[in-house]
Design a protein that fits this description.
Layout (H helix, E strand, L loop, with lengths): L3 H12 L4 H39 L4 H11 L1 H21 L1 H13 L4 H7 L7 H17 L6 H23 L12 H26 L5 H27 L1 H4 L4 H9 L8 H4 L3
């Protein structure tokens, strides 16, 4: 998985992406999609879904019971993956073994001029395009399992707590963050990744409520509430797309902040809001 960002970056170069900022923005989307599909949906859920399908063939009447018992058992895979990234990933982040070695080897082996030596000894850049999708994936795992196996939330909290402490030090003393320039376009992509996690978790909630339909009238009310949550999320998503997204590519950052505080100001830009 650590090699995947380099492969995607190479493919984007071959694809003909012209600027570094476009490469970073497209990597944010593609890396998150790859991790969500291969790590979360395929690898983690394939075991429980496969077991449900196999057992339901011989016992079709117990499919509801199988959903209630098999899906929470897949939380073990979630916990393992989160703990792996929390401790191994955090340790790798704070040790910085490979960059530390390159910092001493590159100036001695390849830097022949003062300019090359200065460039080789400059602080390294932080790879936001590789970090944001991974953190969004952990958010997806924790949020989607918050009602299936709430213990997952404790491990997700440990993950984000560790990385908060590490990043607080790294950005003060290690990383050079001045090269990350996307004009604020990375933030909307992060919001969309979070919305993907919310949608998936709400669909799981609705399916769990449907699986308990035999409980009676209360089960029907729970299904209505779960469907209502999806409708509210869709409405909020449409509102964000209508008010904020059209202006995100055309407004200065300061003016966008003014629009965020007072959404009615967006109406002052009819050309931006006109989608015809």
């Amino acid at each position: 998985m650590s090699v995947l960002p380099y492969i995607l970056r190479l493919l984007l170069y071959i694809e003909g992406t012209t600027t570094r900022s476009q490469i970073k923005l497209r990597m944010l989307h593609r890396l998150f999609f790859f991790q969500t599909w291969n790590v979360y949906l395929v690898t983690i859920f394939s075991s429980s879904i496969f077991q449900i399908a196999v057992k339901s063939v011989s016992e079709p009447g117990k499919i509801v019971e199988l959903i209630q018992t098999q899906v929470p058992q897949s939380a073990t895979n979630i916990l393992t993956y989160v703990l792996l990234l929390a401790f191994i990933g955090a340790a790798k982040e704070i040790v910085q073994g490979v960059p530390l070695a390159l910092r001493y080897l590159v100036p001695k082996l390849f830097a022949k001029t003062p300019r090359m030596m200065l460039k080789a000894e400059q602080p390294q850049d932080f790879k936001w395009e590789a970090a944001i999708p991974t953190h969004s994936l952990i958010f997806l795992m924790g949020f989607s399992y918050s009602f299936i196996a709430p213990i997952v939330n404790w491990f997700v909290m440990v993950y984000f707590g560790l990385f908060y402490l590490i990043y607080r030090y790294q950005f003060l003393y290690v990383y050079n963050d001045s090269t990350w320039a996307t004009g604020g376009l990375s933030f909307p992509k992060s919001i969309k990744q979070i919305l993907v996690g919310i949608y998936i978790s709400e669909v799981y909630l609705l399916l769990m409520m449907v699986a308990k339909l035999h409980a009676g009238v209360n089960a029907i009310m729970r299904i209505v509430v779960a469907a209502g949550l999806i409708a509210v999320t869709v409405g909020a998503h449409l509102y964000i797309n209508e008010v904020y997204m059209p202006a995100i590519n055309h407004l200065p950052v300061k003016r966008a902040a003014d629009v965020e505080r007072t959404p009615a100001l967006a109406r002052e830009f009819p050309d931006v809001l006109d989608r015809s």
